[in-house]
Amino acid sequence: MATLSGNDEDNSKPSQHSADVREEPRDSTAETAGTLLPQDVLCDSCMDSPSKAVKSCLTCLVSYCEAHLRPHLENAKFQNHRLVDPLHDIDWQTCEVHQLPLERFCVTDGCCLCLDCERQEHKGHTTASVGEARIQIEAELQKKQKEISQSMSAAEKVSEKLQSNTDSIKSSVQEVCFIVEQQFTRLQTAVEEARKGAAKVLEGELRQALRQAEGIQAHLEQRKTELMKTLAQVNRLSRCKSDVDFLQEFPEWKKGAADVCLPAVYINHMDHLTSYVQVVTDATQELCDLILSTYREKLNMVRRSDTRRLTFDPETTHHFLRVMEDNRKLTNTSPWQHSYPDHPSRFEYWRQAMTSESLYQGRHYIEAELSGKGAHVGVTYRSIDRKGEESDCCITGNDFSWCVGRNSRGFFAWHAGIETHLDVSDIKRVGLYIDFHRGSVSFFDVTGPMRLLHKYTADFIEPLYVTAWLSKKDNVVALVDAT
Fold first, then answer.
1. Nearest CA among 313, 324, 319 for reference residue 337
2. Domain-located, residue 278
3. CB–CB of 130/103 below 8 Å?
């Protein structure tokens, strides 16, 4: 490290110090206070009227005019003080090691230097004057400022577009909900009309049954009156004391006697009503099944027609994975590696790949075909670590990834390092349904008839990306169009 210019030998030679000081460049055109310029350094010792400084002392950290500089030139006590040309802000622009002004800038190390630092510790480095360095750095800052402004402007436009899209989506959903409510109101109206129709039929049946009962009742009353007359005649005949009178009147009474037999009274309404119940019950069941199946089928068709066509991002693909078929298929080719260029987004330890497209807002449905004991597929955040070897760098081991897959022990669902065994077999194709707004990820077996495998709920804070993990050779994950 460089030492100060003064030493013990110089201390015994004050005259020589004065001679050395005089060798420093001096301002031969000292000016009075009346001709001071804005860029001039003022003497710190002048109290009444300011004078232009001719030297700055790096030891005293003070600037002096020619008059106040005399002690430094003539008094031996100041022989070790370092005099330089006048400096602005002398107290913070001095090298702490060499007590020289920081006139240079080291581009290599990014720090300010004095001349001694430049010749010694920073020898061979790229340097420039502080003024030139500032101009260059200010130009870079202006460029960066312009880039930031452009990025902010672009972000604002994207934000405005996103807000516009969000408002449009809300408006569209409200319109659709209104139309759906109208249709269900129509359906409810039809059901109410059907109910009224069935009630009207039953009311007709009731009126008919009541009329029938009233007719039978009137007939019975008539028969009752006739029977009472017959009974009175029988009683009167029985009171005849003369046998001859009794025997003579009996044939006459018998000719006009009413029939005492009553008609059978039976209304078969229970069987008739039971048939109505059966008809209504069967029709209701058929309509409910038809309504549910029709809505489910139609909505599934709409849902599947809105599925996203995703592709795997080659810049994220592990060196052991091969991207095929328009970046829609991944194959583990271990131990053969592929000469992909280095990229910050590339997975280096876990044999994974992520899609280029994100799933954000709304609902999304994707299907994927899995092959091999080691093929996994799911969704995760873009912020997942691409370089680490820890388990949370895999889509099975962190709390912002959700996936399903097969290993040697069976078929499982994974989240936050917790595996859930799924009692299924022969799964070749899975469906992923993401409802971003409601915060759910559902996995379906769509190899045959669709059936739910597992469902997770979460509060999503980032867009989701479909990600595949192929742990073994010849494992395959392919994104396919929903059918």
1. 319
2. no
3. yes
Any idea what the CATH number is for the domain that residue 475 is in?
A: 2.60.120.920
Q: What is the token pair recorded at 37?
A: 């310029």
User: What digits encode the pLDDT tens for the residues 383-409?
Assistant: 999 999 999 999 999 999 999 999 999
Q: Are residues 464 and 342 in the same domain?
A: yes
Domain count for the chain, please give it.
3
Same domain assignment for residues 330 and 432:
yes
Residue 314 in any domain: the answer is no
Q: Cα separation of 171 and 467, whole Å?
A: 32
Q: How far apart are CA 206 and CA 154, in angstroms?
A: 76
Cis before 50? omega within 30: no
Distance CA 416, CA 413 (A): 11
- Distance, in Å, from the CA atom of 43 to the CA atom of 47, rounded to the nearest integer, reads 9
Coil vs helix vs strand at 289:
helix
Q: Report the alpha-carbon distance of residue 183 to residue 469 in Å, rounded.
A: 45
Residue 63, token pair as written in the block: 């600037």
Backbone angles phi, psi at 300, to 5 degrees: -65, -35
Mean pLDDT, all residues of the chain: 83
Query: Residue ranges of the alpha helices (H) in 93-129?
Result: 115-119
Give the residue with greater pLDDT, 361 vs 260: 361
- Separation of alpha carbons 243 and 241, rounded Å: 6
pTM equals: 0.43
Burial of 117 (0-12, 13-18, 19+ CB in 10 A): buried
**Statement to judge: residues 156 and 104 lie in one domain:** no
Q: Which of 204, 238, 267 is the last residue of a domain?
A: 267
The CA distance from 301 to 26, in Å, is: 91
**What is the pairing mode between strands 401-407 and 375-381?**
antiparallel
Q: Distance of alpha carbon 22 from its chain centroid, rounded?
A: 74
Where residue 257 falls among pLDDT bands split at 50, 70, 90? low
Smallest CA-to-CA distance from 84 within 105, 74, 69, 71 is with 69
pLDDT of 302 over the 60 cut: no
- Assess if residue 272 is contained within a domain: no
Confidence of residue 305 (pLDDT cuts 50, 70, 90): very low
- CA–CA gap between residue 310 and residue 304 (Å, rounded): 14
Which pLDDT tens digit goes with each residue over 325-339? 999 999 999 999 999
- Is the peptide bond between 335 and the residue preceding it cis, with omega within 30 degrees of 0? yes
